[in-house]
TrEMBL record:
It comes from the Bacteria. It comes from Amycolatopsis roodepoortensis. SUPFAM superfamilies: YbaB-like (SSF82607). The keyword rRNA-binding does not apply. Keywords: DNA-binding. InterPro entries: YbaB-like_sf, YbaB/EbfC. Gene3D superfamilies: Nucleoid-associated protein YbaB-like domain. GO terms for molecular function: DNA binding. This is DNA-binding protein YbaB.
Length: 115
C-alpha cells in the first residue's frame, strides 16, 4: 500500500472514531433518568452517572413520617440510578461492543444492569 493511501485510511479511521466518541458523549448526556415512587409522593432525577440532580415532593409526601419519607426518597433514587445505569450501559455497548472495556466501565453497576 502506498504511504499516501495508508495515511488517508488512517485519517478516515481516526475521523470515524472521533465521530463515534462524539455520538457516545451526546447519548450519555441524555442518559440520565427520572423515577417516581409507586404512589407518586416522590420524583427523583439523576444524571448518566447516577448523581442526584433533583428531588420533587408532592403534598402527599408531607403525610409521611420523616423516616418513611427518607426511605422512599432513597428507594426512588436507586430506581432512577438503575435506569440511568441501564441507559449508560446500552450507549457504551453500542460504542465499545461487548468485551473487557465494557466490563470495566460497568463493573460498579448493579447486576441486573450488566449484560
Amino acid at each position: 500500500m502506498e504511504p499516501a493511501q495508508w495515511l488517508a485510511d488512517y485519517r478516515g479511521r481516526l475521523e470515524r472514531a472521533a465521530d463515534g466518541a462524539r455520538q457516545a458523549r451526546e447519548s450519555l448526556e441524555q442518559a440520565g433518568a427520572t423515577a417516581r415512587s409507586p404512589r407518586g409522593e416522590v420524583t427523583v432525577s439523576v444524571n448518566a452517572a447516577g448523581v442526584l440532580e433533583d428531588v420533587a415532593l408532592t403534598p402527599f409526601a408531607r403525610k409521611l413520617e420523616a423516616d418513611a419519607l427518607a426511605a422512599l426518597i432513597v428507594t426512588t433514587a436507586r430506581v432512577a440510578q438503575r435506569l440511568a445505569g441501564e441507559r449508560m450501559a446500552d450507549v457504551m455497548a453500542g460504542y465499545l461492543g461487548d468485551g473487557p472495556a465494557l466490563t470495566q466501565l460497568t463493573r460498579h453497576l448493579s447486576p441486573e444492569v450488566v449484560r
